[in-house]
C-alpha cells in the first residue's frame, strides 16, 4: 500500500434498484415523501407464513439495465449489483473506456449472497435428490459473484471484493473502497451492496419473532420488528481532485469510517461496541460529535435494535443528539444492501438539502428518552453538512461511514 | 526489497493432512496418493461417488473441546480451531489489545451443510418458519468470524470475504488494507471451507473436478501484523494483488489477467521472476483452470520457472479455503526445506473472474 499523502474521496455516481424505484433520484424522491415500498411477497411462495409482506423490487427487467452481462447467467443479487453499478457509472459520466483504462475495481456487501440460487438448489435436491442438482445453477451459487458481476458489466480489471459481513456489509464495502481511493491504490471504486428476497431469510427472522405485523416502525413505541426486503445499490468513488478537474457532479465527500465487533452475542446488539464504532468513525473522519448534523440509523424497528442504537448514540453525543431517522421505515430491511441505501440517501440529503424521515412512526417511544428527533412523517428541508450512516449486523459486525458536504 | 505489507507471526491450519504445519509438511513430501484414514468412504452417508478428504472430527475437538460444538456449524468449528492454534502460538491475546485485534476470513458461501438443512426445513416443516432458530445465525457467511471473535473476545475489525477459490486472498488483502490504514494492529486472517454432502454433490454434478482430485475441507488462519513486536515472523507478505479478468473473454484472457497480477506483485516487491523459488498454484482441482493458471505462471515467471507445490493432491480441492491452505502449504514446505531463504508465490483464480496472488518472503531464520 503506497505511503503517498492521502487523497480526498468523492462520491460522483449513484445507482439503485429498489422497491422505491430505480436510480438515486427516484429513491430520494420517495424517501423525501415518506412513501412505502412494502407490499405482498412475490419472490417466493409465502403460503404458510404468518407475515407475508416484503420490500421487493417489482417488475425488474435486468436486460434493460445491463449492457454487457447476460442476466441468465447470474443470480438475482448479482443482477441487482451490476444494474446499480451500471447506473452509478452512467450517473457519474464515466465511460467504460475510461474505467477500462483506469485502476478501477468494486467492493460490494451482501448478507445472503445468491440466496435465491441456494434456495432453488435446496428445492431441486429435495424434489429429485442431490443427483438432480442443476450444474448451471451450482455455478451461480458463490456470493463472490456479486462483485464479479459488477466488474464484468463495467469492464473493470481491478479487484472485485464481496464483503459478507451481513447487514453492515455495504458500509464495510464503502469503507474499503474509500481506503483504496484515498491511499492511491485505486482511481475508481464502485461500492455498494445487494441482496435478494428469499424464503430462508424470511423464515429465520419470522422464527425469531422479529418480523413486524404490517410495516416496520423504527423508534415507535409500538414497533415490533423488521420487514424483509431486497435491492441493489452502488456508489462510484473517485479522488475529489480528479472529480473536480473533470467537472463531475460531486454528491458528497467520504470523510471516513470505523468498524468494531461486539464479540458478545451473534444476534443481540451491544451498545458499548456501537458507541466505540461511532467514535472510531469520528476519528477516521476527523470530526467531533458536535459536527454531525444527521444520523441515518441502522433503525431496524425491532425493540432491541432501536433501544440499543439510541443508547449508544447518547453515550457519544450526550445531551445533543442530532436528528436521526430510519429509511427502513420505507424500504424495509434490505440486508446487505441496507447500509448502502443509507449511504446513497445520505449523499442525496447532502446534495439536495433534506433530512430523510422515519415515515411510519406514530408515537415516538418515550423509553428512548428525551429529545429524540427521529424526523417523523415526511422529509424535512435542511442543509446538513456532515452526516453519519450506521450499519450493524448479526455476528456483531458494526461499521459506520461518514459523509460530508462538498461546497458547489 | 521493499517493506513487507504484513508479517505472518503465527499460523494455524487444519486439513485432511492433520492439525498444524508438521503433518501438512509430511503429507506434501509424501506420495500424492497418500491416503489418510478417511472418516467416511466415497458414496457413504448421502455422499456422491467421489473421493473426499475430511478433517478428522477428533482434531477439531482436541483444540476446542466437545462442549458446545454441536451448535456451531462445521465451518465455524474449522475456522475456530485453526484460529485457536494461531492464538496459542501467540501466547494468547492480551485484554488491552483485544480492541485492536480482529478476525478476517474468506469463504465461498459459508456453511453449505447448514444452509442446505435450514432451507430444506422451510419446505418440509409444517409451517415454513418452523425452522430451528438457533441455527439461523450459522446460515450467514460471517458466522465463523463472529463466533471466533466471541470465543476469544476480539472486538477489533471483523470481516468476512467471499470469492470462491480467491476468498483467502480477498481476506488477506482486506486485512492488509485494514492494517495499513490503522484500523487494527493484529488480524487473524485466512480461509475456511467445510465438506458437506451438498458441496460434494455440487462438485460431482458440475463435473468440474479434475480426475483423481478429492473434495477436501479445512481452514488456515494467519496472525498478520505490521511489524512483529519482537516476535520472529514465520514469513513476510511482500505483496497481495487481486484483479479481475472476465472469463467471457476466454481462458487466454484470464491467464493474461493472472500473469499481470503476478508481474504487479513482483514489481511491488522489487523482485525478479527468477527470485521466486516456489509457486503454489491454487487452481489444480478444477479441470481446465489448472492449465489456465499454469499458462499464467509460465508467462510471468518463464520456463522452467520455480518448483510447484500442489497441496490439492494431498488435501483435496478446498475451494474457499484453498488460497489460505496454499499459503499454509508454503509455510509447511519451508519448515522442512533444507535450502535457506526463498520467495514463494501463491496464486488463485476463480471461474467467476477474480485472479490474484500473494508474494511471500521466507523468514531469515526459522
Could you characterize what this model shows?
The complex is a heterodimer of chains A (408) and B (366). Chain A has helices spanning 24-33, 76-92, 96-100, 115-128, 135-138, 145-154, 169-183, 199-207, 240-245, 271-285, 303-317, 328-331, 338-352; strands at residues 9-18, 21-22, 39-40, 53-54, 104-109, 160-163, 188-195, 231-239, 252-261, 294-296, 324-325, 354-355, 380-381, 386-392, 397-404. By secondary structure, chain A is of the alpha/beta class. Chain A has two domains: 9-245, 3-Layer(aba) Sandwich (Peroxisomal Thiolase, Chain A, domain 1); 256-404, Peroxisomal Thiolase, Chain A, domain 1. Chain B starts with 5 loop residues before the first strand and ends with a strand. Chain B is α/β, with parallel strands linked by helices and 366 residues long. Chain B has helices at residues 21-29, 57-64, 74-90, 112-124, 143-152, 167-180, 197-206, 251-269, 289-301, 312-315, 322-336; strands at residues 6-15, 18-19, 52-53, 101-107, 158-162, 186-193, 215-216, 218-225, 235-244, 278-281, 307-308, 343-349, 354-362. Chain B folds into two domains: 6-225, Thiolase/Chalcone synthase (Peroxisomal Thiolase, Chain A, domain 1); 235-362, Peroxisomal Thiolase, Chain A, domain 1 (3-Layer(aba) Sandwich). In chain B, α1 (21-29) packs across α11 (322-336), α3 packs across α5 (143-152) and α8 (251-269) crosses α9 (289-301). Chain B is globular and about 65 Å long. The interface between A and B is large, with 82 and 83 residues. β6 (160-163) of chain A pairs antiparallel with β5 (158-162) of chain B.
Q: What is the gist of this entry?
A:
Chain A has 13 helices and 15 strands. Chain A is an alpha/beta fold.
Q: Find the structural class of chain B using helix and strand composition.
A: alpha/beta
| Architecture per CATH nomenclature, i.e. the level-2 architecture of the largest domain in chain A | 3-Layer(aba) Sandwich
Give the number of helices of chain B. Answer: 11
Shape of chain B: globular
The SS-based structural class of chain A is alpha/beta
- CATH class designation of the largest domain in chain B: Alpha Beta
* CATH homologous superfamily placement of the largest domain in chain B: Thiolase/Chalcone synthase
Instruction: Return the CATH topology of the largest domain in chain A.
Output: Peroxisomal Thiolase, Chain A, domain 1
Which protein chains are joined by the largest interface, and how many residues does each one contribute? A-B, 82 and 83 residues
Output the CATH class name of the largest domain in chain A. Answer: Alpha Beta
Helix content of chain B: 25-40%
Shape of chain A: globular
Mean pLDDT metric of chain B: 92
Counting DSSP E segments of at least 2 residues, the number of strands of chain A comes to 15
> Stretches of chain B where pLDDT falls below 50 for ≥5 residues?
none
Overall pLDDT level of chain A: 97
GO cellular component, one term (chain B): cytosol
Biased composition (Basic and acidic residues) (chain B): 32-43
GO molecular function (chain B): 3-oxoacyl-[acyl-carrier-protein] synthase activity
InterPro entries (chain B): Beta-ketoacyl_synthase, Ketoacyl_synth_N, Thiolase-like
